[in-house]
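ingest -> fold -> write
write: protein_1
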Amino acid sequence: MSPKPVLYTYFRSSSAARVRIALHHKGIDYEARPVNLAKGEQLSEAYTSQNPAALVPLIVIDGHEICQSVAILEYIEETRPERPLLPKDPALRAHVRAIVGAICSDIQPLQNLRVLKTLPEDQREEHARTVIAQGLAVVEKMLEATAGAFCVGDKVTLADCCLIPQLVNARRFGVDLCRCPRIQAIEARANALDAFKKAHWTQQPDCPAELSL
């Protein structure tokens, strides 16, 4: 039997949260090893020797060290197909991946800590708010053609794993979600599921007690 996967994570990382949701959805037991991004622990020699990008998440699974959340999600899906997070139909799979790309390529990288630190402090929140609002407007439009109970149809997919953590960031930066009714409805359904509850940032071992629910 392969040893338990080890996930290097940070409680407020939306990228790490995507992977946590997928692991819980599939019932995969894992060990969480927190990396405090605020304290710069991702820049330590010990960590960068495993992940030169100095980011989370990083997973050690089946003897492999894999970084980049989308690559991790795809690996988990391919090696552990039970409770699938991708539809069988090729067109629907493409729709899932398109939504994943809209979130993970077009929104999150432009509002993450690394980018915000390059801006004057008084411009950071407005930049993040604008980027997220514009990106979610695109996703909301995409959902017109794909949404059922969740982003693509009536079952949880990788698109939902990526969308829900991004909404945490949206609220953190004060984005008005009133113009995203489909997104809000999907969020409500997802947040009622155990996988999303267990993956929430307030439930992580490195979440400070004063912030946890």
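write: protein_2
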Amino acid sequence: MPDDTSRITVRGHKAYHLMSCATWCEYMVIDANYVLKGDPAIDAAHGSFISCGFSTGFGAAWKEAMVEQGFSVAVFGLGAVGLGAISAAKLMGATNIIGIDINEKKREKGEAFRMIDFVNPDKLSDKPLSQQVKELSGEMGVDYSIECTRVPSLLNEAMESTKVGVGKTVVVGAGAESVQLSYATILYVRTLKGSVFGGIKPISDLPFIAHKCHTKEIPVDELLTHEILLEDISKAFELMIHPDCVKVLLKM
């Protein structure tokens, strides 16, 4: 079926949405492949947390990077997406997981998801960020990097943080339309891969993630940082840019 989303209108006005997702609408017409019946045993709040964001990062490490046991991973950006990537990397058996974020308070969140080391770029000396990551991973770099910040300049740093010849970078953050890549970084046989929803297939993969949350193998409770009532929804947008915010729960 052709993608005709640009022609969707409501009472003569164009309806805007992203990647087949349309929320805060009274009515929606969506593909059945995007609909999954929730397990009643799963906390409804947790279900909302893993429907996007967290699962995108989780899938980036699980499905796209396909992290191998005993390997090393660097995750750039420790919001819900980055924490998902850390969680999957740990479940896949990564032995060295490095989290990178300019918010020092994200160190605690990363450690809750079993991150090993933390780098705050704002506290670095004159060393490139990629060099700092290499020093924490035996000088050669990590096997995988997951870029979750959507900051264009960090894509080169993420790639440069990986090992020459075998390093693999998965970019998750949706940011600028164009990014200038370092030719030398690509030349040394590193791999760059894009990702949408972490390569997750909702019907077959989300139940696996939900089960891991239900059995506490994934500390999904740590994602919840704020709760507000639906009538105060405008505050949610303010909270989303707050440095302490990971996930906001709207109570209806």
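write: annotation protein_2
The chain has a mean pLDDT of 87.
Residues 202-214 form the longest helix (13 residues).
pipeline exit 0
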